[in-house]
Write a structure and sequence with these properties.
Blueprint (H helix, E strand, L loop, with lengths): L1 E6 L7 H12 L3 H5 L8 E7 L5 E2 L5 E2 L3 E2 L8 E4 L6 H4 L6 H10 L3 E5 L3 H6 L7 E2 L6 H7 L4 E2 L5 E4 L2 E4 L4 H14 L1 H10 L24 H12 L7 H7 L4 H12 L3 H19 L4 H7 L5 H12 L3 H8 L15
Parallel strand pairs: 1-2, 1-6, 2-5, 6-7, 7-11, 8-9
Antiparallel strand pairs: 3-4, 10-11
Helix pairs in contact: 1-7, 7-8, 10-11, 12-14, 12-15
């Protein structure tokens, strides 16, 4: 069972704490109950505050924690809920949190900042020289206060070296489902999403949901290429064009890209496209041909072969296995078989 700690903050947005608690607590439980199967809880979830006392939130709601942060003896993941929009006022109120986060991160624990809670992760110094996202309304203040962080507010999710961020209050759901998938697999994440009538995780505020680029390496030039591919995955991306973005030869780019990510730029692009196709097959009622075209392929036979290579099943088999049930589909949209 995975151990999760959710940090409740003073004056914060309560949904950014409650949503992760709900998603993690229902994984392996709610769907099983709906299917008349034994519940199999996959997460132990606790809530904490700096001193163990209840916190007043930004709305007329007080949250009661399970314990104080210094009472946590072990955890695998720490989720920091969102503060209010006034960083200058909120950050000093959480001074005890920063050394605690640094200590747990040094022990290999994943740290996730939800919405404006990313500012508290940045205040702890855990986002320096890393990509991060947050709520669009506080990003300018974050850029001024934390200039070493690579702020990317257009992203729903970012991940680098066991530090994750999500942008927007309700992106706490995307982040939680993404972590359920990361820790328990895609099938469990899909079942959890279905049980709660949610879509699968988004990674960008626009476009199709897919996995964030692997950015745990330190090659900034390759990160830039990854970001371009991630933003423009429906476009043709010849190696020479990609190499020109960062001023190196195609051969050097391919060598450095493989060293940093473990795959070639072409393999990486295919993976991004196939993950986008997965999201469409799970949540949209389009034909396989339409999905093929939507993610950047013209030849549906080629798309089917690639999809099976990356997922082990055909697009139609994948849809039948993982698509949202019809009662989850958007009202007025009929299933397209």
């Amino acid at each position: 069972m995975h151990d999760v700690t959710v940090v409740l903050v003073k004056g914060g947005m309560p949904s950014t704490a409650v949503a992760p608690v709900e998603v993690f607590s229902t994984a392996g439980v709610l769907w099983n109950m709906m299917c008349s199967k034994p519940a199999e809880p996959l997460f132990h979830v606790r809530t904490v505050t700096q001193d163990g006392r209840p916190v007043c939130t930004a709305v007329p709601l007080t949250l009661q924690p399970d314990c104080a942060i210094d009472e946590v003896e072990s955890t695998e993941l720490i989720v920091v809920s969102a503060i209010g929009a006034d960083l200058e006022a909120a950050c000093p109120l959480n001074a005890d949190l920063y050394p605690w986060l640094r200590a747990w991160h040094a022990r290999g624990v994943m740290i996730a900042g939800v919405c404006a809670g990313a500012a508290l992760v940045a205040e702890a110094g855990l986002l320096d020289d890393r990509p991060a996202t947050t709520h669009w309304a506080v990003v300018d203040a974050c850029r001024r206060r934390y200039p070493r962080v690579c702020w990317q507010p257009e992203r729903i999710l970012t991940e680098s070296d066991n530090v994750l961020c999500s942008g927007g209050v309700y992106a706490s759901v995307d982040l939680s489902l993404y972590l359920v998938e990361k820790l328990c697999g895609h099938k469990v994440a899909m079942e959890t999403a279905r049980a709660l009538v949610l879509e699968t995780p988004r990674a960008w505020q626009t476009g199709y949901g897919t996995e964030p680029p692997e950015c745990s390496h330190e090659d900034r030039g390759i990160r830039n290429v990854q970001e371009w591919l991630f933003r423009n995955f429906t476009e043709a991306a010849p190696l020479g064009k990609l190499a020109g973005f960062i001023g190196m030869s195609a051969r050097t780019l391919e060598r450095r890209f493989k060293a940093a990510t473990g795959e070639t730029p072409r393999q990486y692009l295919h993976r991004v496209r196939i993950n986008a196709a997965r999201h469409l097959l799970e949540n949209e009622w389009q034909s396989v041909q339409a999905v093929c075209n939507a993610v950047g392929y013209d030849d549906v036979s080629h798309f089917r072969r690639l999809f099976k290579r990356y997922t082990g099943v055909t697009p139609q088999q994948y849809r039948e296995r993982f698509r949202a049930s019809e009662n989850v589909a958007v009202a007025g949209r009929a299933p397209h078989r």
